[in-house]
Amino acid sequence: MSGAAELSRYECRICWHVYDPAAGDEVWQIAPGTAFADLPESWHCPNCDAERHQFLPLDAEDRDA
């Protein structure tokens, strides 16, 4: 897997929260630079508590928008 794919942003299908690996997650105390695939299994959306399977990857072209 390429570094770019590992650091893709993911969006919650329920509330549209975006997990950005560059920022990490302050609520869950996830350090910046943590790829979505490396989040703990217990991680949920910090906004709506949706499980990880509710997140979809954002397309690469959306990252620069």
TrEMBL record:
- Which species is this record about? Acidiphilium cryptum (strain JF-5)
**This protein is called what?**
Rubredoxin
Explain how, and how many, cofactor molecules are bound: Binds 1 Fe(3+) ion per subunit.
Q: Which GO terms describe its biological process?
A: alkane catabolic process
| One Pfam family named in its UniProt record | Rubredoxin
Keywords noted in UniProt: Electron transport, Iron, Metal-binding, Transport
Q: What is the lineage of its organism?
A: Bacteria, Pseudomonadati, Pseudomonadota, Alphaproteobacteria, Acetobacterales
Q: Name the PANTHER family on file.
A: RUBREDOXIN, RUBREDOXIN-1-RELATED
The reply on keyword Cell division is: no
Family as reported in the entry's similarity comment: Belongs to the rubredoxin family.
Residues the entry annotates as binding Fe cation: 12, 15, 45, 48
